[in-house]
Amino acid sequence: MNRVVDVHTHVVPKGWPDLSVEAGGTGWPWLRLDSEREAMIMVGETEFRPIGANCWDPPTRLSDMDDDGVDVQVVSPTPVFFSYERPAAQAIKVARIFNDLTLECATAGGPRLVPFCQVPLQDPDAACAELDRCLAAGHAGVEIGNHVGDRDLDDPGIVAFLRHCAEVGAPVFVHPWDMPDGPRLDRWMARWLTGMPAETHLSVLAMILGGVFDEVPETLRLCFAHGGGSFPFWLGRADNAWHRRGDVVRGGSAFPPSHYIGRFCVDTVVFDPAALRLLVSVVGEDHVLLGSDYPYPLGERPAGQVIRKADFLTDAQREKLLSGNAHRFLGLTGPTPPA
């Protein structure tokens, strides 16, 4: 088997400067260090998420990768740092800070850690410029949030950025973020358990019904997190609506939603072999990539266990999901890097 690749992991580097000084404004994330190996991401004075050394320490990551049988991790930003709601000038500065720190962290881990950058997506020109800077510096691709305020992935500015990604050959990982809240969603982590799948579902539909896949080159390499959210389960509903209520559903799409299967990939953060079976059946065995959401507690450990336990997969299919599809998505070549 080729190198086993986990395309969905996150990093929180240590040592970022005071963002209110560097970028202006208030209420920025900062890191409260509680011990050498434990910290809390703070947003202003509010506790956002407890994290550990596996977020910032390459040796810890590499050890966990060895335990899980993972050769390569794609290391992406944590969405709380996207800053899309900020003025573009501030988001540009923050993106540069975290991209440089992420590159340092990945470089310290050697070739087994593949860094993805973030961009100020609210400003398409600035986003393209930051992507180009990061690719030249050593990043391998870009992670974007699934929307910018009320602008979804069919927004003309975001489409222009995606077209640029296709032109420069940068793979794009789409991660849900900034889910709606309220009394019904603030219990039981419901924003993460229901809001995240719904956000990704909506964004896949936006790319289809908004006509994006009819506009951007087929060379665009795109992967949606968390198994594409609820979209794979409801593809039949979307097709039915496209045919029966095309007057309001078709939007800018030239074909029904199922026509665009094959234009994007999804990861395997679905946990259940039955869900993985549906995913492979709907999206196709060539478009499902190992992802774990490491190192966060709602992720999969050991990474890849749902693939390895899925008895319906042939050996050839399992190799695609663990390795081959990610190699194609990332453009990886060469032998497995040393541990």
UniProtKB/TrEMBL annotation:
Residues 5-332 form the Amidohydrolase-related domain. SUPFAM superfamilies: Metallo-dependent hydrolases. Keywords: Decarboxylase, Hydrolase, Lyase, Metal-binding, Zinc. It is an enzyme of class 4 (lyase). InterPro entries: ACMSD (IPR032465), Amidohydro-rel (IPR006680), Metal_Hydrolase (IPR032466). One of its GO terms (molecular function) is metal ion binding. This is 2-amino-3-carboxymuconate-6-semialdehyde decarboxylase. It comes from Phytohabitans rumicis.
